[in-house]
Amino acid sequence: MHHSIHNLIQIQKQIKLKIIETGSKIETPNIIAVSKTFPISDIIPLIDNGHIHFGENKIQDAMDKWPELKIKNKNIKLHLIGRLQTNKTKLAVKIFDYIHSLDSEKLANKIADEQIKQKKNIKIFIQINIGNEDQKSGINRDNIFQFYKYCKNLNLDIIGVMCIPPKDNGAINYFLEMNKINRELNLLELSMGMSEDFLEAVKNNATFLRIGSKIFGQRF
Ligand SMILES: *Cc1c(COP(=O)(O)O)cnc(C)c1O
Predict the structure, then answer these.
(1) Which atom belonging to ligand 1 lies closest to the Cα atom of 57?
(2) Residue of 24 and 119 predicted with greater confidence
(3) Does domain 3-19+32-216 match CATH 3.30.870.10?
(4) Cα–Cα distance for residue pair 117/111, rounded to 1 Å
């Protein structure tokens, strides 16, 4: 068995236990296998084992790795989890099924235009800068309702919010806040939780976990 399949099974077991331990009616979240920096040869075993959701953070890497894999495996869903520069929107709309990093009105406009041109509808998460960090992109918590409305007016299919919390061991508080925001917006999907904090995210109703190194191994 390829190590990535073994790792994924372990993660699924941990999630199951966490849901039982929590004792509430939490839905089993989707796992996005974040394959950034890893070659196709590491990805194929997971595809052959039936895994559906994969994540990349760079447009060019996705274009290099995924077009053929997606043609051969029609059920695969590809997620853009990294920042999207507006000049790459066309390619992003072409190759991805989900975008997790919508973070500006300019980008929202661009995606809306491209979707019309390509007759394609992407599922979109609004990225929230939940820790108010200068170095991170994302919409400020205070502006989220206004921004959501802006996106709805463009007919974007906003399915939830996404965050990358600060590395200060306080992920749980940020996850609580994200869960609250999502409920206030009445959205169904919630993208949060990475290799080091995915179990905390599960407890707070994440529906899409983005897990890289715990599945594929350390990135160099
Ligand atoms: C790389 C990345 C992940 C996965 O990180 P791991 O710690 O390897 O699980 C998740 N989300 C985003 C936005 C990333 O860039």
Answers:
(1) 15
(2) 119
(3) no
(4) 10
Residue with tokens 């990135």: 219
pLDDT of residue 177: 97
Task: Give the mean pLDDT of the chain.
Answer: 96
Tell me which residue has its CA closest to atom 4 in ligand 1: 212
Cα-to-centroid distance, 216 and ligand 1 (Å): 11
Strand extents, DSSP E, the chain: 30-34, 53-56, 77-80, 98-102, 123-127, 157-162, 189-191, 208-211
- The count of other CB atoms within 10 Å of the CB of residue 139 is 22
Residue 220 pLDDT:
82
Domain edges within the chain: 3-19+32-216
pLDDT band at 95 (very low <50, low <70, confident <90, very high): very high
Q: How far is the CA of 208 from the centre of ligand 1 (A)?
A: 12
Q: State yes or no: pLDDT of 29 exceeds 90.
A: yes
CA of 153 to the centre of ligand 1 (A): 30
Buried b (16+ CB within 10 A) or exposed e, 158-170: bbbbbbbbbeeee
